[in-house]
Amino acid sequence: MKLKVKNLNWLAGRPVVFLDMKTAKEMDIAVNERVLITNRKRVYALVDIFSQVVREDEIGLSRELTSILNAKNGEVLE
């Protein structure tokens, strides 16, 4: 599934993605599962559900993940 990036600039201590509850249900993903995020690189990250911050079809990235992927706001990740 392709999701639009929202850089949250939150220091999590490890690569973490934040998803909306509806998006997570569509993808059959639960909290603390690992997911593979790809753009030019491939990185595994932990999932957290945070519907108040990210919208449906968005993926929030922790600061660590943003720097690893060099992702920009609005970029599409898979």
Which helices and strands occur, and which strands form pairs?
Layout: E1 3-7, E2 16-19, H1 21-26, E3 34-38, E4 42-49, E5 58-61, H2 63-69, E6 76-77
Parallel strand pairs: 1-5, 2-4
Antiparallel strand pairs: 1-6, 2-5, 3-4
Average pLDDT taken over every residue? 94
What is the strand arrangement across the widest sheet? 3-4-2-5-1-6
Proportion of beta-strand residues: 35-45%
Helix fraction by DSSP (H/I, runs of at least 4): 10-25%
How many strand segments? 6
SSE pattern, N- to C-terminal: EEHEEEHE
Helical/strand content category: alpha/beta
The biggest sheet, with number of strands, parallel, antiparallel or mixed sense and barrel status, is: 6 strands, mixed
Radius of gyration: 11 Å
Counting DSSP H or I runs of 4 or more residues, the number of helices is: 2
Outline the low-pLDDT stretches: none
Task: Report the principal-axis shape.
Answer: globular
Protein architecture, described:
- It is a single chain.
- The protein has 78 residues and is α/β, with parallel strands linked by helices.
- 17% of the residues lie in helices and 36% in strands.
- The chain contains two helices and six strands, in the order ββαβββαβ.
- It has helices at residues 21-26, 63-69, and strands at 3-7, 16-19, 34-38, 42-49, 58-61, 76-77.
- It has a six-stranded mixed sheet with strand order 3-4-2-5-1-6.
- The longest helix is centred in the C-terminal third of the chain and has 7 residues, at 63-69.
- The chain is globular.
- The model has no long low-confidence stretch (mean pLDDT 94).
